[in-house]
Fold this protein.
Amino acid sequence: MDPETTARTARREHGRRRAALVTATAAVLGAAAVGAIGFGLSSANADTSQSTTSTTTGDQDRLQPSDDGLSAGSGSAHTGSGAS
Amino acid sequence: MSSAAFRALGTTAEVLVTDPARLGPAVELLHEELDAIDAACSRFRADSEISRLHEAAGRQVRVGPLLAEALGTALRAARLTGGLVDPTVGAAVRALGYDRDFASVAAGGVASAGRLRAGRDLAEVPGHDRDFAPVATGGSASPGRVRAGRDLAEVPGEPAPGWHRVLFDPARRLVVLPRGVHLDLGATAKALAADRAARRIHLSVGCGTLVNLGGDLRSAGPAPSGGWQVALADDHAEAVARPDTGVAVHTGGLATSGTTRRRWHHGGRAVHHIVDPRSGGVPEPRWRTVTVAAKSTVDANTASTAAIVLGTEAPDWLTHRRLPARLVGVGGDVVTTPGWPGERAS
């Protein structure tokens, strides 16, 4: 083979090796990711509602208004609220 | 109706029951609940579960049910506020000198950073460092409290790492806290304690119950005729004696966040304890106090804290979420959102 053909062949081989390396790396990373997901860990972006069962039953996608929980004060105070 | 109060979580814990004969068991249950939440969530105790989680940063840890619930609650608050209330603000708060027991500040004592054992102070309690000094009120023995909010300027900081960096599997209670991420569950954990305690006490003793933890309230069971009468003021401890106004709570939670207490000087500037996670700094306050009613104390506290961070945008933010609220500006102006009852003269 002439030098130009030899160089072209070498470049192709280098490209193939590099592609194989990238593929292998991606496979390893993918397997790691699948393993992590399979293990159950996820970013906190995921719904964390399962751990708040006793706090906020119902809709976890918004802060929950009270249902007629408030009216004008009357009479002497039982307790107080303010900054602490 | 009968009530009892004691110190816990760095503030006042109070339980009220509609049947006076049930007060004793109610007090015992409240103690149990607060001890448990403190042991799980206090960043001021070296032996707390959250301190052990910090020590295990970068590794997977299985946490107990209560810390898992508190962490899930805090992450939910972050998600629903778009990061306005973010538990990863811990490092920013510490950087402002907010890392030690408030009682030691008032006494002028010195404690080892992060190694406080006494005090059981889960709630945000400012500490001091070399350039730390509590803001006092004209010589009164009330460090950390001032009458108005006008002397605070915006203090810059570093943004919080972000709640989305915490890896959490709530079903298995598995947590990976990245290195450099420090949690502060103070605000939501105290509200969670009020929710849990009120519900547990009501279910156990069988009468109407109100739990008040430093101004964060939760009603469970039948309220007294006319509702639980709650006085509102800048300082929760003085609200009954010197109310600005009053409101009746029938169900759910009520919480007040404010910038008039837990204040101190850091680096020559006055700061308050509510940090904006987006900047890591202390925002210049628009509101002295924000009081919000919601289905739970956690949701009320989440919204009131977010409102302090938001400043001028807070009324629209609260209205959009249909949360009744009363906001008192640093100049004394009062703004209410739909659903908040009319004011009565105090």
